[in-house]
Amino acid sequence: MSEKSARVVLMQIFRTSAIVALTMLTAGLCWAKTSPPTGILAASVGDSVILVEPTSARTITLETGPIGWLFPAPGGILFAPDVINARTTVISLIALAVVDRLDGLTMPHFSANPDRYTAITDEIVMLSYPDRAVIKTIPAKIAHPWQVIMAPDGAAMMILERLPDGSTGVHMTTVNLITSQVVYRRPLTGDIRHFALSPQLGVLALADAETDQVHLVEPATLTPIAVRTTAGQPIDVVFAHGGKVMATAVATDDGAGFVDLAVFKTGKKGMRIDKEFSIPLSARPVRLAASPGGTYVAVALEGGSVAIVDVGGREVIGTGTLPGTPRDLRWCDPTREGPMIANWTDGEAVPEFGTIVPKVREEGELSGLEEPVRKKKPD
Asked: Residue 194's domain is classified under what CATH number?
């Protein structure tokens, strides 16, 4: 049996063991109102990635180096790029373990299509998965990618550009991946830190911490639709419950915060907020993540706590503790279909793509989430 075949068999064993273990764990819990949360929470804290099983708050710590952003992939894989040391840790969400460490940075963005992904270098690069063959490149000067959302059908890519302190301004860029064109790149006013897309409602939500507002805009043009004012700074925003509920993590002046839930209803007269609720939090929120299926949201708090909120029940149903305040929080779906193992180490990257390395900056220059650049290999 080849080494690669042995790894596949081993991962199949891990998959079966993990499913059995989670089934046994869930069986002993009581969920009267809703089904128990599924998936795995992943948080980047310090020099580690913490995996949390949300039904029990059981945690597993994996040493990775300092990670800014986490990138889930099909087949139960999570990429954790370390921009400081220019390497990427590959984590199996099925085995709950590190399965590989790669030189360079791997930051893939997937739509619903599991056989391809899009990466941001000096240009937009679409590649096949897992063999990394270049499908197309799109010229687009994306200087500081902060958050990326892929349209579910893979037709478009929306990119929020900024540095942590906002010193270079905030821009929104949308790229049509079908026609290979940049649709627009526009400056945004205020302190937009995160945004969310609801295909069901046909809106983008922009969380503006400067004005204490969430702006709802039309995705194709950024035309304003409505504004929701919050009683504090909106730090992060997601859509849950089939895209019909907007959940906003709001920080208040007293060092605490709350989750603002706005339930939308559509009809002949258009879209309106039908119901709204506020769920108090014990500390200031820093990140927000929706569960697979959108039944729950997880809120990461300053100090390291994580609260699980039942969106339909409008209550905190569980809490967990991390060793520190997380930089990123993702609620991953290990059962998402895809390759069993992302084959990133059998041979070199395709020559026309080259090696992804962090951009070199002048001494003292702010880096933020350092964007990768395309660098040709030496002859």
From this structure: 2.130.10.10
Both tokens of 189, joined, read 């006013």
pLDDT digits 0-9 by tens, 269-292? 888 999 999 999 999 999 999 999
In percent, the amount of the chain with pLDDT more than 90 equals: 69
| The total number of structural domains that make up the chain | 1
Instruction: Assess contact for 326 and 54: CB atoms under 8 A.
Output: no
* Angstrom distance (rounded) from CA 244 to CA 253: 29
Place of tokens 């709001």: 250
Digit-coded pLDDT (tens) for 104-159: 999 999 998 898 999 998 799 999 998 889 999 999 989 899 999 999 889 999 99
How much is the average pLDDT of 39-68? 93
Q: Residue 373 pLDDT > 70, yes or no?
A: no
Express each pLDDT in 72-118 by its tens digit. Answer: 999 999 999 999 999 999 999 999 999 999 999 999 999 988 989 99
DSSP state string for 33-59 = SSPPP-SEEEEEETTEEEEEETTTTEE
Q: Which SS3 state, helix, strand or coil, does residue 367 take?
A: coil
As a whole number of angstroms, the distance between CA 319 and CA 298 comes to 9
DSSP-derived secondary structure letter, 162: -
| Pairing mode, strands 233-240 and 224-229 | unpaired
- As given in the structure block, the two tokens for residue 92 are 């199996």
Q: What separation in angstroms does the CA of 268 have from each of 205, 246, 271, 275?
A: 22, 21, 8, 18
Q: Domain residues for 275?
A: 3-375
Per the structure block, which two tokens stand in for 9? 């068999």
Higher-pLDDT residue of 194, 358: 194
Please state the rounded mean pLDDT for residues 195-202.
96
Comparing C-alpha atoms, which of 288, 281, 211 is closest to residue 246?
A: 288
The number of CA neighbours under 13 Å toward the Cβ of 302 is 14
Three-state secondary structure readout of 247-262? EEEEECCCCCEEEEEE
Positive or negative torsion for Cα 302, 304, 305, 310: positive
Please state the rounded mean pLDDT for residues 23-28: 31
